[in-house]
Fold:
Amino acid sequence: MSEMEFEKATVDPAARAMMVKAKKIGYLTTFDRAKAQEPRCNFGNTGICCRICMQGPCRIIPKKPGANKGICGAQDYTIVARNTVRMIAGGAAAHSDHGRHIATTVLHVAEGKAKDYKITDSAKLLKVAERIGVATAGRQINEIAHDVATAALNDFGRLDDAPCTWIETTVTEGRKRKFKDTTIMPSSINGSIAELLHQTHIGVDSDPINIIFGGLKVSLGDLDGEYLATDLSDVLFGTPQPTVSEANLGVLDPEMVNICLHGHNPLLSQMVVDVAREMQDEAKAAGAKGLKLSGICCTGNEVLMRSGISIATNFATQELAIMTGLVDAVVVDVQCIMPSLRSLAECFHTKIITTMPISKIPGSYHFEFDEEHAAASAKAIIRLAIESYKQRDPNKISLSDQKNKVVAGFSMEALLDLFAAVNPENPISVLTDAIKAGEIKGVAVFAGCNNLKGTHNENHLEIAKRMAAADVFMVGTGCASQAYAMAGLLTGEAVEAYAGPGLKAFLKRIGVKADLKAELPLIFHMGSCVDNSRTISLLTLMANELGVDTPEVPFVASAPEPMSEKAVAIGSWFVSMGVPVHIGVIAPTTGSELVHGVVTRIAEDVFGGYFIMEPDYRKGTDKLLAALDDRAWKLRIRSEARAKYAASEAK
Structure:
């Protein structure tokens, strides 16, 4: 890539500088590999390539006799539907497996088998127990934790038709009826995934609508797994509260042993954070000033939210952290970890350390995660990083001065605490009243990954800035939130720079009442990918306060740069919850007009939500704002009508 092409590849100046370095040393980054894939296969791009049996691959050519169907006779709509829902299954498997690990650890803590962990937030445990119907009166914390963890694990393999506990006890009554009426209420996460894979096997289901409904059922299983993962992570490690940190490659300190925590599962990464506090002297003995931890992807979000650990970068630029020559070790667990990290590490002194049995990289160091010996594993990992520090080559170091302040840590509990400063009796009404008064337009959730079909981080930043100017209250998760962190949008200064008058007044009023040490940010960082469950909690509270079901709430979601199967699963359950969902790419559904029409238009008739596929951030913003305006207008009209009829009946 040329330096001019670097400008088009990313909006992040720190990433551009490292891309120049990569070119000088002859290393091909993910940006180079993305360019080398062009032109992309149009069969794959539109979803009409079928590979689910070994007769194929079959590629659908609509106007060619014989080739207008697969060898088995599958139509384009069957193939596109199957491909789409299998992506949902992959995403649900990833998120829910994360949740299963957390639930299993809580169970083992309760049984006294995981001595390195403890129940950190007993208040959250009691809150969850009450919500799902676990008795608490007169019982020990470990007894309650045992039953809550058992209830969570039952959601994975329930054999009867009872609904998944975390879905049944968290969504509105209207959504429960809708899910049951459309037969998409899951009773078992694992069972739903297995059933969907069977349903989409060759020679089983060829009805695209039935296949899509099977996918939506699995997506709700994904939501269930995310919800229990968030709840039980809070129970184990503490519910996040506002914290101030920093983000971008400038957080890497040349005088410290730098360890990057990368992936999605907090079980080992949080232990590394905790143990590192005790091992600073070992780093100093090696000639460093201490240990410096930073995060990449959602493991980074987890330890940022709870421990204030800085963010180095997000998904697409993970290689470029190593390119600085300052990273002594990258500790990875699962999901969104580029295999290329190992080959790049050969050019530097960096050690790549894998920790999970299902996620290994050839040539890396492997410390198998074992919850019974987690602290010992964390210490061994840190000691390897300290040894790696001694091997740094000063000639390969490239310092970055790019970093920005970050205000993060906004769990649902923390957000309600802020609103309670204005209205302690009914905190959520602070948000809904501002919408009804027209001070803010509504709420937007930003989530998702990076996708190099566009410019890295550009859609994330530009849509958020435009939504802020239009007075939209914004929350974020995942790599989207890391994009905002890296660019300085998670600060009070960003409010002054980008917020419209209504949003600015709203945030200022809350900040003054809450008497905070730091100004409220433009966008509220709510956590990792699985913490999208927090955003659904926000939506549900708003719906209940407004006296409506979720499809009537002025609430939208956007994945400006979606990439992974997890993003497909999240977007699908957002649609089921009645939310308009923008994605900044064209999904591989256009090969079937029927399927594409279902997900972008007809889904609204059934569930109230639908997909907006728009790569142009200007047009995407306009469509999101139009959806909010429409819902806010209808909400006001209905509220006025209810008030009028109530007054008439009183007479």
